[in-house]
Design brief:
single chain; about 290 residues; alpha/beta; Spermidine Synthase, Chain: A, domain 2; Rossmann fold; about 30% strand; globular; binds spermidine
């Protein structure tokens, strides 16, 4: 019998990944953090039974959560990442020449520990621009005195410790911590799983009510449930899907090293939503 990791979602539907062995397993005060060696996806991080990243496909998620919002801001210098203790989002952020400082706030030290040890190519933890805070992102944002040009929310799924990262109060605090041209991006699960619809609509409805622009965009991540993954980009000044931002991306993209998914064409097309997804956002539920 081959060894397998299975993530079930939406009832009995599942994703099966062939594994060789378990490399790391720790039940922390927040969650169960595991790393597996897989047969064909490199090492795989799983939290509470849900796939967070594999070495083979992580670039899609990290490039899209980072470069869409960072090109939306005209000159991002200070960036806050909430979650993202594996270091992949910070790695992409620090590829932007304008970025001077990155605060990475991860609630669970074991995520950082496991990543440094078993996913060493993912993070760039020794980069002097990066300041790591082992702290609850919600208490960090509620007490922070700095202002950020971009805030990226790289949390887990909206169950367990990451639930608060999908709530109105949290986004309110993020908005207040952003500079005048500030941009926020967050991962918002897959539109294919019905149990995520409420949080998708809630997040969209709230961001849309306070930011000048809010857009959902999509990318394709083979080891996430259904493969179709949504993110949202909200901006105080520049339209993430507009001509000016696209021009900026075209002018500056060659300064970013090692891109494998993001390019200006992907930036533009990622905002094109299938009808069933835009229908999901058009239902006004009042946040
Ligand atoms: N169901 C998967 C959602 C995972 C979102 N965060 C991934 C962390 C990668 N830095």
């Amino acid at each position: 019998m081959p060894l397998q990791f299975n993530e079930f979602y939406d009832g009995n539907t599942g994703l099966t990944i062939g594994i060789k062995r378990l490399l790391f397993s720790k039940q922390t005060q927040y969650q169960l953090v595991e790393v597996y060696e897989t047969e064909s996806w490199g090492n795989l991080m799983v939290i509470d039974g849900m796939v967070m990243l594999s070495e083979k496909d992580e670039f899609v998620y990290h490039e899209m959560l980072t470069h869409v919002p960072l090109f939306t801001h005209p000159n991002p210098e200070a960036v806050l990442i909430i979650g993202g203790g594996d270091g992949g989002t910070a790695r992409e952020v620090m590829k932007h020449p304008s970025v001077k400082k990155v605060d990475l706030v991860e609630i669970d030290e074991s995520v950082v520990e496991a990543s440094k040890r078993y996913l060493p190519e993912i993070g760039d933890f020794d980069n002097p621009k990066l300041q790591l805070h082992i702290q609850d992102g919600i208490s960090f944002i509620n007490t922070v005195s700095s202002t950020y040009d971009v805030i990226l929310i790289d949390g887990s799924d909206p169950v367990g410790p990451a639930e608060g990262l999908f709530k109105k109060d949290f986004f309110e605090s993020c908005y207040l911590a952003l500079s005048a041209q500030g941009v926020l991006a967050t991962q918002t699960e897959t539109p294919w799983v019905d149990s995520y619809h409420l949080s998708i609509r809630n997040v969209y409805s709230y961001l849309n009510s306070v930011f000048k622009y809010t857009s959902m965009y999509l990318c394709y991540i083979p080891l996430y449930p259904s493969g179709m993954w949504s993110m949202m980009c909200a901006s105080r000044s520049d339209d993430p899907a507009g001509e000016d931002v696209l021009k900026r991306s075209e002018e500056k993209v060659n300064k970013i090293e090692g891109l494998r998914y993001y390019n200006p064409g992907i930036h533009q097309s990622s905002f094109a939503l299938p009808g069933f997804v835009s229908d999901l956002l058009s239902v006004d539920i009042g946040f």
